[in-house]
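Quick start: what a row looks like.
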Amino acid sequence: MQFKDYYQILGVDKAAGADAVKKAYRKLARQYHPDVSKAADAQQRMAEVNEAYAVLGDTEKRAAYDTVGAQAWAQGARSGDDVRPPPGWNAGYEFTQGGPAGAGASFGGDGADFSEFFEQMFGRAQAGRHPHGGGAQARMRGEDQHARIELALIDAYQGATRQISLRGARLDEHGHVVPEERTLQVTIPKGVKEGQLIRLAGQGSPGFNGGAAGDLLLELHFTPDARWQIDGRDVTQRLRVTPWEAALGAQVPVTTPEGTAVEVTVPAGSGTGRKLRLKGRGIPAPKADATPGDLYLLLETAVPGAITPEQQAAWQALAKAYPGFDPRTAG
């Protein structure tokens, strides 16, 4: 994704406190406001300024952004350069819905025109004001928090109780962003899917004036694993077979993702790329009356080497048994 250097856009140091960030934002917002600026790119610059402040003016988003930024800056990246953050870089970070008070609101923006970089990092959440209306004594519910966590596939099959550490941030007495971490016990129900949300009531931001706390929404993702591909509740698993098993057919032992050993029939004449379906062996459904996913076994033919004289003779005999066979033209 194309990197956005929000510090460069706002013209502030990476160690700038919250007040310095807000001051820089207000100055640039007045400069590039479409009703004031005569510059041809005023609207584009205003959108960039709004986006930069939506991140740097929010403690949680700024902490997560600095994680990606540290890698990008070490490589000398600037706005517009292509960066590739490591898989799962944002797992365990908490984000509030929206952004800092005034982002995209005080100066005519609505926060909707955020870049692809922003959306890949934080989703399509728009910056908006924190609600403060209703009088000084009004009770107000706290904001919902969002965090991404990674699970092993086995957790979807069996359910689990996991202790997770969530990384957030807060402002210290000097207005600087400092990391903050908390640990929660989370029950993962059987049958969860990629991208599913689990709501933890009352674990979000605290309320105002005695109002209830917001909720914490955990977005579930499976830890990348070369053994499996996941599509909804269906799971594809590679199964390596010998040339003679593929050609003659065989009963092959397979361990499913949930750890169950089963015998699978490989039909004679199977080739690499063929899929065998094990109905109902995918991710289970959360309810008894719902349909579970299927497990697909993707066959790969494993060709052994010819090391010993006996092995070499065996391959030579096989070649003689198939005169004229050309795998590059065979259908």
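That is the whole record. Residues 59-74 form the longest helix (16 residues). The chain has eight helices and twelve strands.
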